[in-house]
């Protein structure tokens, strides 16, 4: 394999490759030109009709590569290497891998460093052919490691600030594409750096605009009395403040944040964030990042508290998801989406865990069967069992064609027709139209023993309606709908309709089980939580820039938001700086010996004690601010921390044993910010 690839670097081979790629590019250009031509004339050119109905050359190449790989796979399965292949082994030396390497060499040879790539040039054609391979790899048709596509040489040649700036202002055309649109060329670190750089560019622009307004005001109105100054400050605050400042009380984190973010202008939200926390409690902290980290940690903890009813957490996967049909007003989801975006925009890693489909939805990507398996594994197994069942589904499962979930103190079985008539948030963004309420037809309902019943939202035509529970026994309640005071009312985002007495759902049978599984998956991932998700997304995109997030795939987006769960303690040690200690001081050496002996969970507890977060940023522990400072306290005192500065204050203990004991006590009784 290596010898074969070496031959492609020879000039005769590269000349052949360039001519081949140039010819494919020219053919593709002709195909796209002809496909745009009108063939509805009374006497169309027959040659044009032949071109339009023939398979494209790039599709033909991919078909050949897929067929060849399938043949190789079947051949390998007949050899002694079959077990390696069955256990996740990769095919080596296939035509698709050789073709990819050839294309990459063509691109690197022809690329002139420009950010704008002519699609029909050798470089542009090579990239689009590589993109075809990448797409079919993603569909599982080609067995090609992602690392083979990345070109660190390309990213190393870029001016990151210039590339991000150009991407934000770039307007796509039919013949030219931006280099950054070929996302497979860049790994996760490169892409997240580009995204964060684009955020910094937008932040600088917003800051400079505010600075210009303030400078203009001072220049044009240099002599005004104090009363006028106060008046102007109040009226021009949205235009001239350099920062968006949140003043937060620890006892009411979310409500304080929501109150201060409500009706903010977008230009304010795009400025750097500053958090003042604990002022009412007498704390004094400088927001150098640590206060923001703790603020978002507390905000997420409150949002995921079951009593708040914004999100639920799966007990098996520990992944969060939207609470379906909750009585929480949709504006709270919108404001939390805004808060979520502010964290990302300001480079904060959030202590949340969402399934991958959450990030796909935010990027307007379609979901797959694998998304249900990751987020709801037990449900996915049950649905798969139903699909593959050999006997009578109707008799053996006795399952009705309904979607079941808990909401507002009730367990509901609802009709599974599309409640949105195919309308999605993407349609809302494209058309600018508001979404109508979803239709929720309740076939059956009975008490949820674990949650008390709540009141429904009052509609415009009637007063608030309670959902009284039937006094019939539970068996009776499962066979017909309960009696409500009204058959129609509203919940946030929903028009709720109660089925008529005697109206029963149809059973799931062998004939309709495929449709049942498909609809049930859509209800779990999309339909049941669409009002809440759409409100969240509306707030999210009031801050975030669609163009910058378009650089990321869903996996990279999740890493940007959630960071990494694994802490590399060696990397943290390399990143640590010292104040009044050195790396060779006895106390420092004892400290690292003790910490390296900790299990991973306790190491992350230490990280949270010092930095206010146990999550590791996307760029790894090397990017953390972690300072060990000598404390002037008595050697009997416990270690302390200042999360404002990412600093651990460590007294000069007399032995390793004393240090270990004191550090353990400090971690067990840590109070977070300002611990001393």
UniProtKB/TrEMBL annotation:
Q: State the organism of origin.
A: Aureobasidium melanogenum
What is the protein's name according to its record?
HECT-type E3 ubiquitin transferase
Which InterPro entries does its entry note?
A: E3A/B/C-like, HECT_dom, Hect_E3_ubiquitin_ligase
- Which key words are in the record? Membrane, Transferase, Transmembrane, Transmembrane helix, Ubl conjugation pathway
- Membrane-spanning regions, if any? 335-359
**Is Transmembrane helix one of the keywords UniProt gives this record?**
yes
Q: Please, which domain of life does this record's source organism belong to?
A: Eukaryota
EC number(s) stated in the UniProt entry for this protein = 2.3.2.26
What catalytic activity is recorded?
Answer: S-ubiquitinyl-[E2 ubiquitin-conjugating enzyme]-L-cysteine + [acceptor protein]-L-lysine = [E2 ubiquitin-conjugating enzyme]-L-cysteine + N(6)-ubiquitinyl-[acceptor protein]-L-lysine
Q: What class of enzyme is it?
A: transferase
**What positions does UniProt annotate as the active site of this protein?**
644
Note the Gene3D superfamilies from the entry.
Answer: Hect, E3 ligase catalytic domain, Hect, E3 ligase catalytic domains
Please indicate if the UniProt record lists Lipid biosynthesis as a keyword: no
Q: Region entry Disordered: which residue ranges?
A: 450-476
Q: Name one GO biological process term.
A: protein polyubiquitination
